[in-house]
Amino acid sequence: MWMIRHLLQSNNPAIVYKTRTRVLGETPPPDLREQIRHSEMAIRLLSHRLADGTIATNPYKKWQGPHWTLVSLAEIGYPPGDRSLLPMRDQFYGYLFAPHHLTPPQSLLIPGQEDRFRRCASQEGYAIWYSLTLGLADDRTEELVRRLKRWQWPDGGWNCDKRPQADTSSFFESLMPLRALALHARLTGDPTSRKAAERAAELFLKRRLFRTLHDGTVMDPNFLQIHYPYFWYYSILAGLVVMAEAGYIQDPRCSDALDWLESKRLTDGGFPLEKRHHQMAGTMIANGTFADWGPGGQTRHNEFVTVEALAVLRAANRL
Questions:
Q1: In Å, how far from its chain's centre is CA 198?
Q2: How many Å apart are CA 146 and CA 161, to the nearest integer?
Q3: Residue 275 β-bridge partners
Q4: What is the pLDDT of residues 26-39, one digit of tens each?
Q5: The whole model's pTM is what?
Q6: What is the pLDDT of residue 1?
Q7: Three-class DSSP category at 11
Q8: Cβ of 264: how many Cβ atoms within 10 Å?
Q9: Predicted confidence (pLDDT) per residue in 183-211, tens digit
């Protein structure tokens, strides 16, 4: 396929790495990960650190704070075990383990609704995922895993909706906990993590990743637009990526979403970035990112989106 050859010749080693591992199923040479470490993208993501390795901003600042910087590094295949990243990890862990974090307004337990602890669990989910992916996990990571399992709602997901009548989990808050628990189960063999991931996957699969239960209509029109990076937002592509990682992509209930993805393919074989939730910047701004995630638009392919889509289609035996 011409597009795969094009991706393998990319100037961005993250694209080459993703193509070789996730699209072609190869084991790339170690020096490719080192190229990612020294790439322009990684350097830009880390350029705003202070001398002590921290970032002088709110730990959760979108998308340039320490939390989202680690998310981005894990997303591009940055090599694991870099201890210079620990100060950023500890910044966000300090945020998650602060005493007030599990009390209103950050979290809420309504008497009589103990099975629906209100918490923005995507934060814990992402922290687990990048800690494991980047080789930064410690005992606190395991505590975050335990928290997710305790907070899992009856329908398998998570939600931070503080209204007493809220009884259904949020796709936005549930996708990253699913991704994290599936990875934890794969790396550790923990059967309780595997079971929790199965329950979370069912939340999405019952809805075919984007349809309502009651009449099968599209849950949210924004789900039908391709965006990248995923950050906090949900879209069908993000759901398919996590289903592939967690081992559920060949479930027949993914077929509608896979059909939708195939319909987005451009004439050159690539896939577009249709909606941005970020703005590239060299300074701290609202929704800013220091990294260049590629071009947007309906008619030209984005390399990151393309490699993600092709990896999903390969996992589903549709490539």
A1: 17
A2: 21
A3: 227
A4: 998 889 999 999 99
A5: 0.97
A6: 82
A7: coil
A8: 18
A9: 999 999 999 999 999 999 999 999 999 99
Rounded CA-CA distance 119/172 in Å is 12
The predicted-structure confidence for 33-60, as pLDDT tens digits, reads as follows 999 999 999 999 999 999 999 999 999 9
Q: What is the mean pLDDT of the chain?
A: 97
Classify residue 155 by its DSSP letter: T
Helix (H, G, I), strand (E, B) or coil at 279: strand
The contacts of residue 311 (CB under 8 Å, 6+ apart) are 18, 22, 23, 241, 244
Best CA proximity match to 293, nearest among 314, 272, 309, 312: 272
Give me 8's structure tokens. Answer: 């393998």
CA distances from 150 to 57, 114, 172, 192, 294 (A): 30, 10, 19, 11, 39
If you search the block for the tokens 């990960």, which residue do you land on? 33
CB 308 within 8 A of CB 301: no
Structure tokens, 145:
């895993």
| Number of residues that make up the chain | 319
Whole-number Cα distances in Å, 84 to 42, 54, 186, 226, 261: 13, 9, 26, 33, 38
Which numeric CATH code is attached to 40-315?
1.50.10
For the record, the structure tokens of 141 come out as 């990571």
Domain ranges of the chain: 40-315
